[in-house]
């Protein structure tokens, strides 16, 4: 649950800190869906297309796509599935698992609001909430890494200085990270433990799925191109890895043209184990 304060004025007193909260779902201690995400899921269930759902939820199509992509990457099973037709054709449907999460959220939200009503009354006597809010803001950490996955540690191969950590991120996909032994100990990593893998989109190279190249990079994930757009200099390409997982790469327009990347074709993402950042709660 994410919380933030808001100013509140009492009669004849200085502004007293109030307290408000937004209900969010957490997976293994990490936030992955809030009310805005649930509204989007509800609209997808009602309207059957991501375009219509994004419009009804007051979101851009890209923001809605990114939200669904993030939820599917972090959830144990996909919440939304795309029908035939690709990103701009066909439709989208909420899965049975997604519908269960939506119904649970709606029930919990009612109880959450009842709790907040009581909390507001109790907090009137407190005068240190602003200091608390500032502390929480400083402790909150956000990542700029485009690709974030939740997974399970499968194996750790330890060396004198570094360790190679293999992570199962679901959908039959595995990531390998190269980190120091000190990081393994500090993160408390061991087989069976949960961990997060973060990979910057700029660290990922794309190749033709059938190029037959043998590379020294430890990570090679293949899938269907579901998003390919060029910008002024660089472009963004997203691969559907299967199992509800996606991976996004930022590469030059020249590279996109050289590889003849387009939506619907298969391609492979390759990146070094040293480009994978691991995190735990």
What would you give as the CATH superfamily of the largest domain?
A: Winged helix-like DNA-binding domain superfamily/Winged helix DNA-binding domain
At the first level of CATH, the class of the largest domain is Mainly Alpha
Shape: globular
Stated plainly, the CATH topology of the largest domain is called Arc Repressor Mutant, subunit A
Q: Helix coverage percent of residues?
A: 25-40%
Could you tell me the strand content as a percent range?
A: 35-45%
Can you characterise this structure?
This protein has a five-stranded antiparallel beta sheet. The protein has a five-stranded antiparallel beta sheet with strand order 13-17-14-15-16. It has a two-stranded antiparallel ribbon with strand order 1-4. The protein has helices at residues 35-47, 50-56, 61-74, 96-122, 129-139, 181-187, 253-259; strands spanning 2-4, 7-9, 15-17, 20-22, 24-27, 30-34, 80-82, 92-94, 147-158, 162-170, 173-180, 194-199, 205-208, 219-230, 234-242, 245-252, 266-271, 276-279. With 281 residues, the chain is of the alpha+beta class. The chain has three domains: 2-138, Arc Repressor Mutant, subunit A, CATH 1.10.10; 148-198, RNA polymerase II/Efflux pump adaptor protein, barrel-sandwich hybrid domain (OB fold (Dihydrolipoamide Acetyltransferase, E2P), Beta Barrel); 201-270, Beta Barrel (OB fold (Dihydrolipoamide Acetyltransferase, E2P)). 31% of the residues lie in helices and 37% in strands. Helix 1 runs antiparallel to helix 4 (96-122) and helix 2 packs across helix 3 (61-74). The chain contains seven helices and 18 strands.
